[in-house]
Batch of 2 targets.
Target 1
Amino acid sequence: MKPEENYVDLVEDIIQEVFDKELNKQEKICTSLSSGIDSTLLTTLLKHHFPEKKIHAISVKFSESNDESETAKKIAAKLDIDHTIVHIENFLEELPKQIGIVKSPFWDLHWFYIARKAKTLSDCFIAGDGGDELFGGYTFRYDKFLSLTNDSTPVNERIKSYLNCHERDWVPDQEKLFNKKIQFSWNEIFQLLKPNFDNKLSLLNQVYLADFNGKLLFNMIPLYRKFHDHFKVKYVAPLLSRKLISLSTQLPDHLKYDKDKKLGKVLLQKILQKYEIDTFVTKEKQGFSVNTQNLWKKYGQKLCMYFLDESRIIRDGWINSEWVSKYIDNKDLEVRYVNKFLGLLAFEIWYRIFITKEMNDDEKLKI
């Protein structure tokens, strides 16, 4: 096992290798900056590695949501780089355009705004994607999973516990949401997740594996790539380099997640400490995130009521109208149900654009 200092130097060296390979010829570089560990780390290393280059950071501020942009502004000032805050009032307003680009029924497509703004500042964009999955960023998930499992917990129970750590992604009566045309099966979901937990890895490493093989590979990376391609922006994600992915699998557990302190990304935080910028970083895991319950109250519920009133996905037998009717009038809906309704809204819009072809992706969602 290498000393901690060696891992710190090795990670930094690999990131700088990526910089040299991908960014040497770039005069202007754009970066995302959420005030979290990953984006702060890469922006800091970028500035120290290329002090002569023009660096411009982008932050996003969502209406009535947790605002990290002011902290990001302080980090940008500390690093002496330009900084832009993109304000988004109605998170759902350009959902048809976003769905038109990714050609998939997703609703949380905030990266559209970042990629669009980045194109106006540079042809090259750098982001900290992969930090949570590779270096232990989902501390709330690890703590809960470890409280629900132990080394003797059967595989199926581990999968149930993992799903219970993602409770915002599903609802207890989810099987009633879909009509017969979608043959929803919890068993199929269990089979998809089983390889991540039916192995000899430690409990935490099984969670890391499931996180990497789930949202990162099949949601974030392919969706982000479509936005970058659409706006013709070169996308660089140093934390997702092959060398760092390989290194992350070899790291000692305590350099990812400190169980006693319930602290994640231990190794990455050590690099921030080296550059004396760790005190600026937001401690809780947040990133660019919208408060979906506030969004529901201000825009989401009315938009869902409008589009799902004469819903094509209900009419054509995909979604159960009784499930929709049961919850849609509730203004104070539980967050997991709000997320599910926003997913249905995205499905409906996708369906109208690509299946019934009665909607144009230039349409704005306004109330």
Target 2
Amino acid sequence: MNIIKLDYTDRAISTTREAWFNATEIAAMFGKQPYEWLRLPETERYIQALCKREAEKQADSNTGKSRITKSRFIKAKRGNAGGTWLHPKLAIAFARWCDVDFAVWCDEQITELLTEQPHWKEGRKAASVGYAVMSEILQATRQAEGKATQSYHYSNEAKMINAALTGRHQPLDREALSAAQIRLIARLEARNAAMIARGISYTERKAVIHDMARQNGGGQAITARQRGLTRFNSQ
């Protein structure tokens, strides 16, 4: 489970890109516990109706059949960010029980996460390919110059890209980036790879990459998101 953090009134909320939310964490913010909501008769009826509807949809599709139970919508996680996790189809009803203002905010986040997800996946794939190509070109170029390529040579290139995006020359958890940020990384990798192949020095490449990032909204910490959404490093 790749966990990212959303900011709600300066408090970190754990979620996933598929918009599952940590109900234990959320309930604690309002002096409550998830089991209190889960045992309510109206909650039980809602979950039963949700399971029934999902079973009907499955029957109408060409996919294989499996028994739909509440475990499809409620999961328990141990360790870091452990607790009860709720599917987005339950998150709003649960959030409304916690606090009406939080429910409005939660609805907005779920919409954004689910809308962004396919674009993020596409960008993540492009960035992975971009890094592989950049690494291959780096190795081939250094080999042509009679130089060995060590692991730190690859990491230095990645950190240079990260610094252009976030302002910090250090490893970066790409799972925590927005779709726009991950697409920018792919573009920076492509530009850097082209310059490596042309024999441009690291210092010159760094200046170009940082300038390109600034022109495209980079150079800020990854916690800065458009539309007031703050993302923290994933756990």
